[in-house]
Amino acid sequence: MGTYKRLPVAFTYGAGAWLFDEQGNRYLDALSGLAVCGLGHAHPAVTRAVAEQAGRLIHTSNLYQVPLQEQLAEELCAVSGMGKVFFNNSGAEANETAIKICRKYGHDRGLATPQIVVMEGSFHGRTLATLTATAGGKQQESFAPLPQGFLRVPYNDADALGTLAGANSDIVAVMLEPIQGEGGIIIPEPGYLQQVARICRDHGWLLAVDEVQTGLCRTGRWFACQHDEVLPDVMTLAKSLANGVPIGACLAAGEAAATLTPGSHGSTFGGNPLAARAALAVLEVMRGQRLDQRAAELGATMLDGFRERLDSLDGVREIRGRGMMFGLEMEQDCGELVRLALERRLLINVTRGNVVRLLPPLIISDEEAEQIVAGVSDLITSYLSGH
């Protein structure tokens, strides 16, 4: 179906931060499959785990015990501080699970129409419920009628959330991204997440944090909410969890962890042996190589490099970043940069029309990081000068 405006290139294999097309040309990947391939392409530990598991057992369904899934759940809870995990196959599904937890939490307390507060500029997925939770726009209009039960406030504005709290007694949860990725790499003020968590505690609401793009070392901590020392009630993961093998996870703590009961939710493929084994390999590498620390240090160096090269240019509005997550905001729409970068054998993304989004693999070398900074900076400089 005509759902994608694909670029005119097809890749046949990858190695680390590099992808190779059908003609053997090499491209530096500064996007890592939209933050999925955090360990780069064809990582030997993931390759070995997938190959070995494919030769043993791929799927049995969740009618039976899945020891690898249980081991993965234990490891995720250990690194996150959460209590239980539900596995599915994508970020949207993980966020659907979070929405169901929040709604059932409300119904269990006698609320007939529980409301979830979401944020302007958010992105939570493309299913009907997650699309509704996502920031509004023409795409929502095309799929009406949408599910009810969502209220929207400005992002990075705890006062607006506090005002809403006094005006609606059916609110059961707040759902947000600790950094808005698709929204343009919007990083809230320090302490914002703590303020939101405090409001949730004061009103008996759940705090659901969407870490699909930000989680698993991307921002320089295991999870972006840890920058504000916040432990949410619900946390969603996907993207980089298995380095390209489809998997999603919804983690929960406290009362939220006990909300779903047998028969209230399920997934045929979720957390099957193949996906779980791949995810275990990813976590082992991230932990062993301290990729959270590596992302923090290398990301800070790259951010300094972008600012040094681009901050003074007319046409550049702001350079934002945390860890290995960068947003270079232009004064005007710049979608053409994606094609121009491809011609230079560099893979980037533009979101919100005017924000160059960069999500490099966490395993890049210092030299590759400098190549990305130099390549993207030269691309933008040339573009803004009209050459």
Would you write up a description of this structure?
- With 387 residues, this protein is an alpha/beta fold.
- The chain has two domains: 11-30 and 291-385, Aspartate Aminotransferase, domain 1 (Alpha-Beta Complex); 46-288, Type I PLP-dependent aspartate aminotransferase-like (Major domain) (Aspartate Aminotransferase, domain 2, 3-Layer(aba) Sandwich), CATH 3.40.640.
- The protein has helices spanning 32-35, 44-54, 67-80, 91-107, 128-133, 138-141, 158-165, 192-203, 254-257, 273-288, 291-310, 336-343, 366-385, and strands at 11-15, 18-21, 26-29, 84-88, 115-119, 150-153, 171-176, 206-210, 234-237, 248-252, 316-321, 326-330, 346-347, 349-351, 355-358.
- Strands 4-10-9-8-7-5-6 form a seven-stranded mixed beta sheet, sandwiched between helices.
- Strand 2 (18-21) and strand 3 (26-29) form a beta hairpin.
- The radius of gyration is 21 Å and the shape is globular.
